[in-house]
Amino acid sequence: MTQTRTTRLERGRGALGPALELVHTGRAPTRAVLTAELGVTRATAGAVAAELEALGLITVDSRPTASAGSQGRPSHRLSVAGNGPVVLAAQIHADGYRAALVGLGGRIVATAPGCGTIPADPAHVLAEVVEAGATLLRETGRRCLGAGLAVPSAVAEPDGEALNPLHLAWPSGAPVRELFLSALADAGIPGVTDQIGFTGNDVNLMALAEHRHGAGRGARDLLCVASGHRGVGGALVLDGRLHSGSSGLALEVGHLTVHPEGAPCHCGSRGCLDVEADPLAFLVAAGREPGPEVSLLRQAADLLRDEYADPGVRAAADLLIDRLGLGIAGLVNILNPDRIILGGLHRALLEADPERLRAVVADRSLWGRSGGVPILPCSLDHNSLVGAAELAWQPVLDDPLAVVER
């Protein structure tokens, strides 16, 4: 490295993390954009990009070409390294688990699903999903820089305890982060430290992934509501950062009451979104007996897609849309988001009748009649997995040199 480049890099070393995040989230597709976003000189931005490339994290187009009709000097294009390091992402849900290797840019490199009944011992299933991830690492030969886990429960901070895994047979307060770290160490995942294994609620991580790479990109205050295999969850990104509250327990939207005389909820109340607007509620409202062959989410989504013309299915969809809209309207009144995204069955309900849902929210919210809040479907496949990976990538985004060179 020349002395001039060394000097420029030293001046821009504090920009390595912000620069990597800009490329990671697609907000700096060229070196010219990177220069403008960082507020540094072109030479310093070039040195920073070159260092990130030397670390194997990004690729800099060495021979930029100008697009048709453009003027001036073409800028070097920047992209995440296609063969660079990965993180291990894992997700537990009511009907199984999935392990994945995820690169920068939210790109899933490889996945390994595992289905079946989740055992009551969380250590058992965490060992299985981590071993599935370790197998992917051995098969691909990729370097692993971290690991993240998504679980269908509120996760208390800072200890990483799953406080209400209502749709799993796990005990309340299961130490999932501790168990995850132990499983990573037992599986021989390279570089395991207290800072490699991160855990979070699956809908929180869905919102984080969608904000960085999907339908929530560009929103400042993003509300996410989603129904997974069972239940309903919510998450909020405020000013670009995931809002998890004082101890990780914010946005338990599943326990908003939307039907006071409705079904009993696991929390002790009645008529909560959790039991009035999830896949099981839809199947019951449509008069269908849930089967054991595939997940409730798959059964509900298939029914909505294949038999929406059936009057009973349409009536069930209308009922869930109305109750979901009532809950979302209450959240809009309190949070005033600039965008709402829906995942799981709620995404399918939105796509089935977008005007009905938007009308309910507009009618019931203080701000709806004056312009409305955009309501969009989530756009990423396996977005909770990608969000788990975002947890693992965060230390790299904060300080690329410290993590990659350790």
From TrEMBL:
Q: Source organism's superkingdom?
A: Bacteria
Residue span of the signal peptide, if any?
A: none
Q: Which Pfam families match?
A: ROK (PF00480)
Tell me the protein family, please.
Belongs to the ROK (NagC/XylR) family.
Q: Name the chain's protein.
A: ROK family protein
Q: Which organism is it from?
A: Streptomyces lydicus
What are the top taxonomic ranks of the organism? Bacteria, Bacillati, Actinomycetota, Actinomycetes, Kitasatosporales
